[in-house]
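Hi team,

As requested, here is the filled-out complex form for the glutathione run. I kept the field names the same as last time so the parser does not choke. Let me know if anything looks off before we queue the next batch.

— J.
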Amino acid sequence: MIKIYGAKMGSAFRCHVLMLEMGIQYEEVKVDLGKGDQFKPEYLRLNPNGKIPCIVDNDFVLWESMAINKYIATKYNSDLLGKSIEENALIDQWSYWSILEVQANLYSIAFQKFWASEADRDEKAIKKAMDDLPKALKILDNQLEGKEYILGNRFTLADINVATCVMAADFAQYDYSAHKNITRWIAKLNKRPSFEQVPFPPKE
Ligand SMILES: N[C@@H](CCC(=O)N[C@@H](CS)C(=O)NCC(=O)O)C(=O)O
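And here is what came back:
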């Protein structure tokens, strides 16, 4: 059985959502970030980055949430993958784009505003992220214009990967409601049983 290291939060959240969407049995292994479990030698042997998520599938170890999701969807031949090489390339495009252009900026704001000490706070980093985010979100909003999902009218892995990046807005207390298509799409995804089972932000 696949083990996912990391609770249903942060970057591990998207791997839990995918497993629930696909109805795959898996084991969640708790890594208490507050207590520093991610830096223990036994965890660093699996993921030298000291971050969650990481999966162990028999003897195979994999980290990076987007790579994990692609591996799981491919291994179990999920219909959440594209129906062609081109559709799969578009899923990759949106996934890599969202982690870099959306999630990284949201985490930068959350880190600088709420997690860093006042002495360490980098106002320039906050400003850069606040300037860059609306441009990125506008690109996503335009893509969703007149469509139910990122690739059209079919829910795919791109929706899980990109939406879970946008949902990091909660950590940053970033308001994206001006982007009407994104707001509508997130509300629709939150009604899916998988997202409902893994509420974000976590309630546990
Ligand atoms: N790009 C990585 C990001 C992983 C990541 O940043 N994980 C955070 C939680 S969202 C973490 O484990 N942080 C612990 C730490 O920095 O000490 C992925 O998508 O898997």
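Two things worth flagging: The radius of gyration is 17 Å. Residues 2-75 form a domain with the Glutaredoxin fold (CATH 3.40.30.10).

Thanks,
J.
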